[in-house]
Amino acid sequence: MADAASRLTSVAEQLLGVPLPVRIRAWDGSQSGPPDAPALVIRNRRALRRMLFKPGELGLARAWVAGDLDIEGDLYAVLDAMAGFVWERDEDARGLAEALRDPRVRAAGRELLRLAGPPVPPAPPREEVRRPRRRLHTRRSDERAISHHYDVGNDFYELVLGPSMVYSCAYWEDGGTLESAQRDKLELVCRKLGLAPGLRLLDVGCGWGSMAVHAAREHGVGVVGVTLSREQAAYARKRVADEGLTDRVEIRVQDYRDVADGPFDAISSIGMAEHVGAERYLEYASRLHALLAPGGRLLNHQIARRPQRDESQYRTDEFIDAYVFPDGELAPIGTTVTQLERAGFEVRDVESLREHYARTLRQWVGNLDAGWERAARLAGPGRARVWRLYMAACALAFERSRIGVNQVLAVRTSESGRSGLPLRARVWQG
Asked: Is the pTM of this model over 0.70?
């Protein structure tokens, strides 16, 4: 099949209605498109079948994860170029039906079918979550979702995240390193919470124990950290023991809904609330409010999306739901603040760290690329490709302000209304 690349370029431009901003290199060695542009590499015709049988983002994702589709050159440039006419196209069924009335579009579709080869749907990559329809965010479904994302192997996460083992955005300053920026983020959280010796902290979604260790070592607090990931808990417990902090830090494999030994003076929830879901968010906020002593503070660090005109039309990202965060949901920051206040909190401060997350993600992608062969051995090539695409695409989304991340400081005020915060709150003193 000679010159598959030119034929694919022509088909793509007819279907999309815009010039293709990338070069295409096809399985037959042919190339088409701007010679200096990064290339979309279609390694075999199975990639086309994946996109035909699952049009849109999920078909592309399956081809990428399986290695049928690749990028040659600047990954960010290709993702940024493609975002405008693949991921951000807001076409409904009516728009598609109208497009199919165009004889040129129908002809392009027939050509794509010929290029794709036998009409047999390829099986999804094994990294894709397979699940029956069920009620979301039960204790059991949350445990499975967390295990899918975090129980990939601690060695793999060490390679990507670096020694800090912090899987949330760092807090950067000019000239800082990933390690110093992650340390500064943990310290920022501690200062916002007003941690001091003798206080008791609950770290919800404690991950690999970085926040718990930092708070106990640097601020002398007692910490209970909870996670649903057994691999995270084992790693965190070893870190606690190595630091000599077993008398101050307890790591549990436990659902936050089952924590019953409050009250706590402070609660940190860093990068966990995205797993809660809209239906459960008020329950989450109310449970944390109940676990705090009067005057206690909550620091909720959470990714946010832009609000939609019709919020009932919100759908989770297909690729992320199938391969990265099963059942994860993003909410606008206004919704999060409203739910926290409905639960009884007084929201005292909201700080956006959007640009900080973009920079953090680029660092993680750089770590993954630098250790690619080892990463593929540790987690499997498909899983490594999932993380590379996910982190690079998210870096661009933060840079373009399509999503954001915010630290929300909220207080369970006393009956008299006392918050315990200083008049100039951004001083962040206890």
From this structure: yes
